[in-house]
């Protein structure tokens, strides 16, 4: 990939050694980082070299002429932390890439749509569903709704308007996605504001890697940080039942819808932080959210965790150690390394994978399967 903003844009910071070069760099760095725990071969799930991001956010920058007419452009933070105006982006999906200039040109024509617009977010599916969130520094009135609806019809996209304490949903606030995972089709609804994986191809690769590296179990799976059920729903095929928890209301709402969309009756989703769930399991606190669930009905042998960048907190790390099988997906190798200091006292690493979700950046996602010693 050759982007005209390489070296200037603060997003893609590894730009001068090509896709293979940046991947090799990250593989060597992580092999070295984790060499005190394991010398097994890492499985590598590669990304596409360009057009791999199905969600993206851009600032909107305005240049004014002497008559105070504004010209709008997309903008990123530059490597030296200034504003970098851009005309296009090579890493976003083809649909987002095509829509970007046409959408901005149309918004630019109208003072109501463009007034105090400061960011645009895109969320796109492989089924060509597109949700665009226009974010403003002002209250949105009825006249905005009418014009935004016209924009939505013109480009066949869903539009949400956001400003402080305001969210205007014109049609609906989600997109539909269909993923083929190990030749089975799964339907997902991604709701605006809920967590979704940014790289569809690598996301499918991550789910397949987990599915292909764990055995069928006659027991149950416990999952923390489950988001909208991205891993939960495909993984449930390997277990008798699944209990999955997550802190975000929006994500739990989409997880429940996703369960219905896939006619899945094996999973119970509960809105609960990982820390609260530990308290519930250890019977330290009673939660009304769990009134219809008897935790004693579950016979867990495995736990799946995919925490945010902070990794596991102390109590969750201690809980995880009670399970025979730990499946750990991590977006931060530093906190993963810290957590493994503790987990490898009771478990051995059986499989280790690197998932290149964030090409041309120093970030890399990891996946591990650990078994009790
Ligand atoms: C990296 S995402 C993974 C989501 C999901 N596994 C997926 O593939 O889409 C981490 C998730 O953890 C949730 N989260 C953050 N802090 C949490 C906490 N303390 N307890 C439970 N969930 C939390 C976030 O809302 C987010 O959905």
Q: Topology of this structure?
A:
Blueprint: H1 18-33, E1 43-45, E2 55-64, E3 70-77, E4 83-86, H2 94-108, H3 111-114, E5 117-124, E6 130-136, H4 142-155, E7 158-163, E8 166-169, E9 174-181, E10 184-191, H5 200-213, E11 220-224, H6 232-235, E12 242-246, H7 249-261, E13 267-271, H8 274-281, E14 300-305, H9 314-320, E15 325-330, H10 333-343, E16 347-355, E17 365-372
Parallel strand pairs: 1-16, 6-7, 11-12, 11-14, 12-13, 14-15
Antiparallel strand pairs: 2-3, 2-5, 3-4, 5-6, 7-8, 9-10, 15-17, 16-17
Bound molecules: S-adenosylmethionine (SAM).
Note down, in words, how this protein is organized:
- The chain has 373 residues and is of the alpha/beta class.
- It is globular, with a radius of gyration of 22 Å.
- A hairpin with a 5-residue loop joins strand 2 and strand 3.
- The chain folds into two domains: 18-49 and 198-372, 3-Layer(aba) Sandwich (Rossmann fold); 55-174, OB fold (Dihydrolipoamide Acetyltransferase, E2P) (Beta Barrel).
- The protein has ten helices and 17 strands.
- Bound molecules: S-adenosylmethionine.
């Amino acid at each position: 990939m050759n982007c005209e903003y390489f070296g200037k844009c603060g997003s893609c910071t590894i730009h001068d050694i090509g896709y293979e070069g940046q991947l090799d760099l990250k593989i060597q760095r992580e092999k070295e980082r984790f060499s005190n725990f394991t010398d097994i071969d890492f499985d590598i799930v590669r990304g596409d070299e360009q057009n791999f991001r199905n969600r993206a956010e851009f600032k909107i920058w305005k240049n004014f002429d002497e008559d105070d007419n504004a010209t709008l452009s997309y903008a990123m933070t530059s490597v030296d932390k200034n504003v970098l105006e851009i005309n296009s982006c090579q890493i976003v999906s083809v649909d987002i890439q095509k829509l970007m200039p046409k959408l901005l040109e149309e918004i630019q024509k109208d003072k109501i749509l463009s007034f105090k617009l400061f960011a645009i977010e895109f969320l796109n599916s492989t089924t060509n569903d597109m949700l665009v969130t226009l974010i403003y520094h002002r209250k949105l009135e009825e006249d905005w709704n009418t014009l935004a609806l016209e924009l939505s019809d013109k480009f066949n996209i869903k539009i949400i308007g956001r400003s402080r304490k305001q969210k205007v949903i014109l049609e609906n606030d989600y997109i539909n996605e269909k993923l083929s995972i190990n030749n089975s089709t799964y339907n997902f609804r991604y709701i605006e504001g809920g967590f979704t994986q940014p790289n569809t191809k690598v996301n499918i690769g991550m789910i397949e890697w987990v599915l292909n590296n764990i055995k069928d179990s006659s027991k149950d799976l416990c999952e923390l940080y489950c988001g909208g059920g991205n891993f939960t729903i495909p993984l449930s095929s390997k277990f008798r039942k699944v209990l999955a928890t997550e802190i975000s209301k929006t994500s739990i709402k989409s997880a429940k819808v996703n369960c219905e969309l896939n006619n899945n009756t094996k999973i119970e989703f509960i809105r609960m932080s990982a820390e609260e769930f530990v308290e519930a399991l250890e019977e330290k606190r009673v939660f009304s959210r769990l009134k219809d669930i008897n935790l004693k009905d579950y016979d867990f042998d495995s736990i799946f965790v995919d925490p945010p960048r902070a990794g596991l907190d102390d109590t969750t790390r201690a809980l995880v150690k009670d399970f025979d099988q730990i499946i750990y997906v991590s977006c931060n190798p530093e906190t993963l390394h810290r957590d493994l200091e503790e987990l490898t006292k009771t478990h051995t690493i059986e499989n280790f994978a690197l998932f290149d979700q964030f090409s041309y950046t120093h970030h890399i996602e990891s996946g591990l399967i650990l078994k009790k010693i």
